[in-house]
């Protein structure tokens, strides 16, 4: 019998509504985006739910993301991303076979999946790309390059690599022959650092069908394969690089080996810190698209975090942009373009947006650099705040309504303030244009709304224009540092100081950059006021910059050291200075031998602005000057103690600090107009940080003994008794910690000494968010250890500290320095004839050329530690805490130096638990010094774990915190003679 089908019966039924249920309202792109956040096992389970879920859950781009997010270290591609991901799970082979023969279903259509499938399998050989409209030059001179292009516009250069050996040796076949077993890092949208053997990568390139293929983008290729550095040289046009004053391990990533197959590339971005770059292609062809600064490409969104200025760019892959967005552009909105051929070098100026698409398999080398032309832009981009970062990338559309006028007013008022700023800069300011109505963009700028006529009329990539958008209220020392900056906050200061010393001919330029990044003019003015008040010599030109890696501005001027307190806001600054002054007073009172190894205090006070003028009030830490009272920061016990802002006031603040954000800390008082300060005597010689690489082993052992002896002196000092009102104030404002929730687990509150009570409260606050803090710090802390941290850290800190024996306190608190690092240890030279003694005069040192950290050329045999510096982090707590910076920073984890230190220290570090003594919930680990020290590392307010996993890279593969503990602190458990 013949069956008739209607037209509608010939069309398969749409299976999407029934297969997805309530999820059918979501488009496929949203569903696919959600699946990325599941684990591979959950995706596999979800694929069994329905036919459509099976289709979505078996997409190769999904499994590529899942694989890259879970790979740990080296990657080996198994022919498909699903197979590779299943192989990572170490599943039995019979379970992996299910992905060989995928099922097929009719009645399902998806334009989103179709487009993605097309991008995965398309080839670019059939696409026609012309030579482009980027200007081309051959054998251009350095003078012509600087005049026409440097920091101005891109250019495609030929002739720069003609003599490089890489022109013939950097082919896929030759590299495979020479470096097949070498691991290179890949750049992909993954939070993990992934490497792949080159031979495996070549195999992957030959069989892959990825929309955004893996891309070798290795900034350590020169360290991994030094021979590759001999195959090319930096072209003469780009040899000026201000970052070259930094040691190799301190300078940011700046050179990359780039290898990628057809369809791979770099999506739209602006290079880090607004640096400029050159890129030389050795084989293959690349297509470039570029937009000038401030002109965001279509389809790209810029997000700038208001809190720390971190910049995040949302962008399609380079292939997707060229296929889906480029055709939508009118001719006048199209980017500047070019096709780069082997042997050609493209120059990308500071701040320019660029996107790269590999038309075939390519090999290239690229370097970023800072020179005279872009230095100020780099400094500007490092400055704290967010508005200027958005404007540099997205133009005036980064501003909210009215922000442009506000920036103009702020700039003009700053010029009229008491600050003696550089008048030449005022004359160079551009003429302001009246802004027209702007779209509201809450720090996110979508390029689809750009009005280019408005943009071109108002936005200027000029340093005098861009600096208007700096947040003048944000201070370099106590504002959050953007994680997108290419170097750290302290490294930035070190870099500028080294530039100042190394390039005296460029000091006008360097000073302008320092004023942008560090607000150097403000600190310089403050120092001049202090020098005037105390009749000290003014800084020489060499002394204009703050020195050191600390968190406060420090100036070395003649025989004096001036330190201004700004770290963590005004309240913390008062407590820091008050505690130091209280401590110095105690040293003299008890005549501790430690006082001979601490720089003498010459003056201290408070600098502030009142009615547009600087004023200074001397302050020895006692009493409460009116300038402090006006900030509403008077401690409640101020009339009952000699040092109202002493150590117990500081401990009170530390407890609050453990639960406060950086913005809350900084906002405590008018920190932008009031600065506590101290003047101390300058030491002769150099810091250990400067001498580390040149010291003999005997000198370093002597240093370990010196530190043990001085830490002994410090930890034996009596600390001020707790005033009753101070304790009552703390008890009233903070509940006593009970993390475990068990009444039996809580030690009797009344029996805990007040000093330990403060210490326990701080630890408890820090434990509450320990996982989120470690996660935020991220690499190199292994994520699987972060997941286990809560079960490693104890809940009951009174029992963890084990301070009681037979109902009595058996473990005392002590003063702790908290920050004895390599730049806080000062050393003096021993001359040829004899080592320095306490009778060696300053005249002797001057004769031998060792004053002010300068070596005049006299022969020396050794260096001896003389002083411990910077007591602004003084606290009272467990003396074990002082071992953390000493062992990890000064000793770099060397067990021999730790042993030498302990032999000199000779004080108990913990109460030994007898074999008959029970410690509930802790077992034997509570009696291990290594366990106590490891817990303090994890709970530390600074990223101590980052240091640990950087020093001991093998620990990144550790299976437990106990393994890390034993490796780093295991030698402490042998210290039993004095426990």
UniProtKB/TrEMBL annotation:
Residues 223-386 form the JmjC domain. Gene3D superfamilies: 1.20.1280.50, Cupin (2.60.120.650). The keyword Isomerase does not apply. One of its GO terms (molecular function) is oxidoreductase activity. PROSITE patterns: FBOX (PS50181), JMJC (PS51184). The keyword Metal-binding applies. This is JmjC domain-containing protein.
């Amino acid at each position: 019998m013949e069956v008739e089908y209607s037209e509608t019966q010939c069309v398969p039924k749409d299976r999407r509504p029934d297969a997805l249920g309530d999820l059918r309202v979501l488009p496929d792109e949203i569903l696919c985006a959600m699946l990325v956040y599941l684990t591979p096992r959950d995706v596999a389970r979800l694929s069994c739910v329905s036919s459509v879920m099976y289709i979505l859950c078996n997409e190769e781009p999904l499994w590529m993301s899942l694989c890259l997010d879970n790979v740990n270290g080296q990657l080996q591609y198994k022919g498909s991303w699903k197979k590779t991901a299943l192989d990572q799970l170490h599943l039995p082979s019979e379970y992996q076979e299910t992905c060989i023969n995928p099922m097929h279903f009719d009645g399902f259509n998806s334009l989103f999946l179709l487009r993605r499938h097309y991008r995965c399998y398309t080839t670019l050989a059939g696409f026609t790309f012309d030579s482009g409209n980027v200007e081309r030059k051959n054998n251009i001179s350095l003078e012509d390059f600087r005049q026409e292009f440097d920091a101005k516009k891109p250019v495609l250069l030929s002739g720069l690599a003609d003599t490089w050996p890489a022109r013939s040796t950097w082919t896929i076949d030759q590299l495979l022959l020479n470096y097949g077993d070498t691991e290179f890092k890949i750049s992909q949208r993954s939070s993990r650092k992934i490497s792949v053997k080159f031979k495996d990568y070549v195999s992957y390139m030959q069989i892959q069908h990825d929309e955004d293929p893996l891309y070798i983008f290795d900034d350590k290729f020169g360290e991994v394969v030094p021979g590759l550095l001999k195959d090319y040289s930096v072209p003469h046009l780009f040899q000026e690089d201000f970052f070259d004053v930094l040691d190799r391990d301190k300078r940011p990533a700046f050179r990359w080996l780039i290898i990628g197959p057809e369809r791979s590339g770099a999506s739209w971005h602006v290079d880090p810190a607004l640096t400029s770059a050159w890129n030389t292609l050795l084989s293959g062809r690349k297509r470039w698209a570029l937009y000038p600064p401030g002109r965001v490409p279509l389809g790209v969104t810029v997000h700038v975090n208001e809190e720390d200025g971190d910049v995040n760019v949302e962008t399609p892959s380079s292939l997707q942009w060229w296929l889906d967005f480029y055709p939508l552009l009118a001719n006048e909105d199209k980017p500047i373009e070019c096709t780069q051929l082997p042997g050609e070098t493209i120059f990308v100026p500071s701040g320019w947006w660029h996107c790269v698409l590999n038309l075939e398999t390519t090999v290239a080398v690229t370097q970023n650099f800072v020179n005279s032309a872009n230095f100020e832009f780099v400094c500007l981009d490092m400055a704290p705040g967010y508005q200027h970062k958005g404007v540099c990338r997205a133009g005036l559309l980064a501003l909210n309504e009215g922000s442009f006028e506000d920036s103009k007013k702020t700039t003009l008022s700053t010029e009229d303030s008491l600050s003696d700023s550089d008048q030449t800069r005022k004359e160079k300011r551009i003429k302001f244009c009246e802004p027209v109505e702007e779209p509201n963009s809450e720090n996110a700028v979508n390029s689809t709304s750009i009005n280019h006529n408005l943009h071109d009329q108002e936005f200027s990539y000029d340093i005098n224009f861009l600096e208007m958008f700096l947040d003048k209220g944000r201070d370099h020392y106590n504002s959050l540092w953007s994680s997108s900056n290419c170097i750290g906050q302290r490294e930035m200061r070190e870099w500028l100081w080294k530039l100042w010393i190394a390039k005296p001919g460029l000091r006008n330029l360097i000073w302008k950059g320092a004023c942008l990044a560090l607000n150097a003019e403000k600190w310089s003015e403050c120092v001049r006021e202090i020098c005037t008040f105390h009749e000290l010599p003014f800084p020489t030109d060499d002394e204009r910059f703050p020195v050191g890696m600390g968190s406060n501005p420090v100036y070395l001027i003649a025989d004096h050291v001036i330190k201004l307190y700004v770290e963590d806001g005004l309240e913390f600054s008062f407590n820091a200075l008050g505690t130091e002054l209280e401590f110095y007073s105690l040293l003299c009172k008890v005549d501790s031998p430690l006082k001979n190894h601490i720089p003498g205090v010459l003056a201290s006070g408070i600098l502030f602005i009142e009615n547009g003028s600087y004023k200074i009030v001397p302050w020895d830490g006692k009493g409460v000057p009116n300038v402090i009272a006006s900030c509403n920061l008077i401690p409640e016990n101020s009339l009952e103690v000699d040092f109202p802002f002493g150590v117990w006031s500081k401990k009170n603040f530390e407890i609050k600090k453990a639960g406060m954000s950086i913005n809350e800390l900084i906002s405590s008082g008018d920190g932008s107009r009031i600065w506590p300060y101290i003047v101390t005597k300058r030491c002769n010689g150099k810091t250990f940080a400067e001498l580390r690489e040149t010291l003999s082993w005997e000198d370093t052992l002597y240093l370990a003994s010196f530190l043990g002896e001085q830490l002994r002196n410090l930890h034996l000092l009596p600390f001020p008794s707790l005033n009753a009102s101070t304790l009552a104030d703390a008890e009233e404002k903070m509940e006593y910690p009970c993390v475990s929730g068990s009444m039996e687990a809580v030690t009797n509150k009344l029996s805990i000494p007040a000093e330990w009570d403060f210490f326990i409260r701080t630890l408890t606050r820090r434990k509450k968010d320990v996982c989120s803090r470690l996660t935020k710090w991220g690499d190199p802390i292994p994520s699987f250890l972060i997941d286990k941290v809560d079960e490693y850290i104890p809940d009951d800190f009174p029992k963890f500290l084990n301070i009681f024996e037979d109902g009595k306190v058996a473990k005392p608190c002590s003063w702790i320095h908290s920050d004895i690092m390599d730049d806080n240890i000062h050393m003096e030279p021993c001359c040829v004839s004899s080592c320095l003694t306490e009778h060696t005069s300053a005249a002797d040192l001057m004769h031998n050329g060792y004053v002010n950290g300068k070596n005049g050329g006299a022969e020396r045999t050794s260096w001896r530690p003389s002083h411990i510096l910077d007591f602004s982090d003084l606290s009272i707590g467990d003396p074990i805490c002082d071992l953390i910076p000493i062992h990890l920073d000064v000793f770099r984890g060397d067990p021999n130096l730790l042993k030498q230190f302990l032999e000199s220290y000779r004080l108990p570090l913990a109460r030994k638990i007898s074999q008959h003594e029970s410690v509930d919930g802790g077992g034997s680990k509570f009696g291990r010094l290594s366990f106590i020290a490891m817990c303090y590392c994890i709970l530390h307010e600074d990223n101590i774990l980052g240091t640990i996993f950087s020093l001991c890279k093998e620990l990144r593969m550790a299976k437990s915190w106990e393994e890390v503990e034993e490796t780093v602190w295991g030698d402490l458990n042998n210290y039993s003679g004095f426990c």
